[in-house]
Design goal:
This protein is of the alpha+beta class and about 450 residues long. It folds into two domains: about 290 residues, Thiolase/Chalcone synthase (Peroxisomal Thiolase, Chain A, domain 1, 3-Layer(aba) Sandwich); about 50 residues. The protein contains 13 helices and 15 strands. The strands form five sheets. The chain has a five-stranded mixed β-sheet, sandwiched between helices. Strands 10-15-14-13 form a four-stranded mixed β-sheet, sandwiched between helices. It has a two-stranded antiparallel ribbon with strand order 1-2. It binds coenzyme A.
Length: about 450
Amino acid sequence: MADGTKPPDRPVNNRPANNGPANNGPANNGPARQELQRGGEAVYRPRYAHIVGWGSYVPEKVITNHDLEQIVDTNDEWIRSRTGIAERHVAADPKETSVTLAVAAARKALEVADVPAGKIDLIVCATTTPEYAFPATACLIQDALGADNAGAFDLSAACSGFVYGLAMARGQILAGDAEYVLVIGTETLSRIVDWTDRGTCILFGDGAGAVLVAASEVPGGILAVDLGSDGSGGNTLILPAGGSALPTSLETVSSGMHYLKMDGKAVFRFATRVMAASTRKVLTRAGYTPEEVDLVVPHQANLRIIQNSVLNQLKIPEEKVFINLEKYGNTSTASIPIALCEAIAAGKLRTGHKVVFVGFGAGLTWAACAIDWRTPIDKAEADWWKNTRRQATYSAAAARSMWRRAVRWVYDVLPDPEAKGQDARRDREETGVQEGADEEG
Ligand SMILES: CC(C)(COP(=O)(O)OP(=O)(O)OC[C@H]1O[C@@H](n2cnc3c(N)ncnc32)[C@H](O)[C@@H]1OP(=O)(O)O)[C@@H](O)C(=O)NCCC(=O)NCCS
């Protein structure tokens, strides 16, 4: 800086902590405004939430429809005509988990954005297949990335989860509470699918996608969101056992209640209705018409659902709707970010494009968002030094995590001096020996 002072690491938010300015703008484009005090003068700065990095990762192992013919009573023709799916990736290696897939995707997103993990303020991990009920998968991802300044939580909204996560990221950014939010969708659905149930095992796949959402003064970004739910349909797509309603037991396992159960027809009807309605809502809120949309990235569950909703009801032409479910099946929370990455790689997205993400899933839930895409998509030249530095930070994060675990282990095994004192006092009391008795001898 000209005056020789170091620029702050993050933009300073001098707004009073307790009362973020109300968003009184029109519903379609009213980003929160940040108030900065400079010499007693209030300055209003617009804030927008832009996707500035993206990445995806799928496990190597592919299971084709023909492979499935060997497992259940099905055939390639039936699966293709009813769903559009030809193959899916599965995490065949037990070492591949929702966390490892997510970390691989997140690292790519950070690389595209050229932002170090230490700058992330919040990690939102949308997943239906968390590593554990707790701790949150997001926390394990935070540790693996070395995102030491980030809060982290899991978001449970099933296949709508990624768009729900974007809404959370946008809210945090517009409120002035975060500069960088990492939103991840990650799934190892192959672990909760009943591979003897032809009604469900043909549909799902594993994978992860991540985006980095950043605060900016450049107008655009995530302009509008629509989130919805209808819990009355909760039982149409459900993992019955393992929660507090039906804790895991020999009985739940022997009756297969730890596998995903679905009423396919009910979900199909619901999905075709809400996909179109939610898309319409965000378009209105963003001030767009369906004709103006350049790209729709829908949840990749079933080709016929996309055709019956986005294509037929909204009359958005096929070339503007990105579909890749043929290769991945339904990867739940990961399907939209994986499709986004492929759409970008295929040159379908450019600066100035009007983009819609729309999804639906268990809950029942649905969600859509409208984006005025402003981030340049040209990939920067590979930079050897930056890559090496990045790898070094990941190794340092792994070392730091091991060190912290080691310190905790040492605290566990070392005798606690305070506890030792209490033990000695209790022993003395139990044996009737009085304080100072030894000396008095
Ligand atoms: C699951 C789904 C593909 C089933 O398609 P559908 O057209 O509704 O098929 P149906 O369930 O009516 O089954 C039709 C017939 O095919 C059979 N069938 C079902 N699965 C089959 C399979 N994998 N292979 C061959 N036949 C199959 C059924 O037994 C039924 O036979 P029948 O007529 O002799 O009784 C479809 O309902 C769907 O995609 N629903 C939405 C699911 C979804 O997206 N879930 C995720 C939400 S995030």
